[in-house]
Amino acid sequence: MLIQIDHIHFTYPAGVKALDDVSLLIQPGEKVALVGENGSGKSTLARHLNGLLRPQSGSVWIGGWQTTRHSPAKLARRVAYVFQNPDEQLFQQRVWDEVAFGPQNLGFSPEQVRKMVEQALELMGLSASSQLNPRDLGYSGRKRVALASAIAMQTPTLIFDEPTAGLDASEQEQLGKVIASLHQQGKTILIISHDMDFLAENLDRFVLLQRGRIVLDAPAQDFFSQKRVLEACGVISPQITRLSQALKQPSLALSVEQFLDGWE
Ligand SMILES: Nc1ncnc2c1ncn2[C@@H]1O[C@H](COP(=O)(O)OP(=O)(O)OP(=O)(O)O)[C@@H](O)[C@H]1O
Ligand SMILES: [Mg+2]
Description:
By secondary structure, the protein is of the alpha/beta class. The longest helix is centred in the last third of the chain and has 16 residues, at 169-184. It has 11 helices and 10 strands. Helix content is 38%, strand content 22%. The chain has one domain (3-223): P-loop containing nucleotide triphosphate hydrolases (Rossmann fold). Magnesium ion binds next to helix 1.
């Protein structure tokens, strides 16, 4: 499903210009990282994709649907968005109910809902926690419930806002595998994060925002080669990439595996 953002502007009522003439085309099945300093407009841009915010000028299209012409409830069929903070999202008493809420609302049959929930719980390592209260889980557990709720909806597009915050190393690795599996199913994935190591290992295309404008949009290797732009925008490349750069490896490494491949 093609995502087309066309010259959008958005200023919050308090007068903060959060998006300033942003245009972006995301092809079906792309894995895109959205990065930039605090306050650069990442979450504001993401909220335009599920219709929580509407552009004050310009337009956003999700497939053939223009977001101003459809309710957020309808757009939820096409875009699932996981909030930065799981506690803003979770509201049910049982993990199972939380994850079932989206599919039920989309009108799937009880049998289909059961399958969708089971799959999502399994993928996020939550099968054994389905009867627990999300509030009794730790922060990373609640984060994984929020991710499972989005995945269960089986939308063609998924947006995760800071998904790795609070996850330990093995949970992050598991999330990387989940992203790879969603990608294999043909989903479009947009991830907002400050975690360059995670992004470099798992995503292909990088979009950099600065004060509400896109200043760089490039495949991962080209992106991390643009040292000056990244520095100006407060982006620090993964350690392994900096080491690869310092050693002038012919092909810039984005992961330890790539670094070792380039090691003669
Ligand atoms: N509800 C709001 N009301 C007024 N201003 C807001 C609101 N939400 C965000 N802003 C402002 O809009 C700008 C963009 O904010 P946004 O949350 O989109 O940035 P971000 O890139 O997601 O930042 P972070 O990395 O901290 O999550 C910032 O200047 C922010 O202070
Ligand atoms: Mg944000």
